[in-house]
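User: I'm new to structure prediction. If I give you an amino acid sequence, what do you actually give back? Let's try with this one:
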Amino acid sequence: MSSIPNEFIETLLDRIDITDVVGARVSLKKAGKDYSGLCPFHAENTPSFTVSQQKQFYHCFGCGKNGSAIGFLMEYEGLDFVDAVKDLAQLAGMQVPASNFSGNQKPKTNLYAVTEKAARVFQHQLRSAAAVIDYLKGRQISGQTSKTFQLGYALNEWDALSKRYSDEEQSLLARTGLTTSNDSGRVYDKFRNRLMFPIHDKRGRVIAFGGRAIETDQKPKYLNSPETDLFHKSNELYGLHLARKHSDENFIIVVEGYMDVIALHEKGICNAVATLGTATSAQHIKNLFKVWDRIVFCFDGDGAGVQAAEKALITALPLYLDNKIIEFLFLPQGEDPDSYVLQHGQSGFLAALDAAKPLSDFMIEIISKDINTKSIDGKAQLHEKAKPFINQLPKGAFKTMIAQQISEISGMSMQVKNPIKPQQTGSDTNDNPLRKLISLLLNTPQLCENLSNQLNFDTLSFKGTEIVDKIVEIQHNNPQINSAAMMEHFRNSQYARYLGHLMRMYDHLDDTQKALEFEDIVSYLKKLSSQAEIERLRNKQLESGLDSAEKQALVQLLREKSNQ
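Assistant: Good question. You get back a string of structure tokens that encode the predicted 3D arrangement of the chain. For your 564 residues, that looks like this:
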């Protein structure tokens, strides 16, 4: 067994996109919501190998091989588990933790404990920072919102934070970027006299900080943590964990600053995140598309905002699939999301969102900028300028339609061919309900939260109840775990291959349909469980009689059955 912590494996699989790993070794084509190609593990002429970006899982219907990005590298490259993890960690820019601990002993390099402690210290110090509290009140940020975002204050002292850590923890503190040193080697706190914004990963763990200057002449206005073992700003988005937790909206708003996210949240618009002092990256967009099908980029209406939007569009083009939507909202000159929502309120901001430009409109606007499309020369120029944009798009209906629109404007044909999509494979409707339940929990681990205390598996005769118990336990310890990371917990168990096959059972359903299927299965299993318990109590009643508690239980079960 590897001594690499499960926590590291889960974080690694969050950072890695399996389509990048497999696509670098196997020719993949978009097939519906998944990707398909010829299986690299057995000879075939017709593709039966699929890769699910949503589940971060591969499966071959021909030879049956399946697994996560780790499992793929082990099979394809012939690597052992540790070497496969190291290769992926290198790709993700992560350092595999040292494995010189065992049993219940925690690794000494617990950087998360360091950052979490710092967040608590900053929060505590904010309580007595009257000027900072007044500043937040002036920005209409309530105490509850400050608590939700864990806002804090760094004292105007050289070692106010570092002196709270032991000598053994000082090196860890430096590794998190919370301390720095000058040319003479003197170590001091990086953040001083600043309003502090803890930055969290998607699981809600503090991984870095941003600090806003309190005094007007304090430079820079915003100071962020450097790149560390925990923090890679091109991968992270401010407020992502809260957007997932507090909003049921089917779209996400991407803004540019901490206060934009916080101000929107204060007004009840909780589906907002911010880039962290960097341009929108491909990884940002991939991470968002794993959760939402629609992204609205919200930028200031000035030249810098339009330029940032153009960069975001160009980054998004290779990732823009037919089942996704990207829009661009430009606020009036001199406005940002923070100021706009304070002036116009929730309803005004939502009304502005309705006027956001589709990617297609903004793309044509960029292509045709400064071109006279009425002249022959301009039309030829437009046609040539559009080519690199069109070529960046993945094959599909959108690429075909935008090329047709360019053709209509320029009067010159721009042909695009699309691949033929292979037939979808449905599920096996004859599987027993517990197999179906396991499949749904593997596909959507968060469904475990709706399962607690609903079923008494001891009364059911189906095999596999221990697997359900284990899945629920794993999800309880890591609420944000994804399918691939869940499967890694079973890598060395006797169930690994069996569970790999179950992962594909519900690929023909969308998330809403899966949720309904889950409710139906749980309801059915509850009925079976109740009936089994009724029969057990009746048999005991005939053989030896029931005590008062058992009699009441039987009456209650019979009453519930009659009401069904």
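You can read the tokens as a compact description of the fold. Here is one thing that stands out. Residues 41 and 76 are 8 Å apart (CA to CA).
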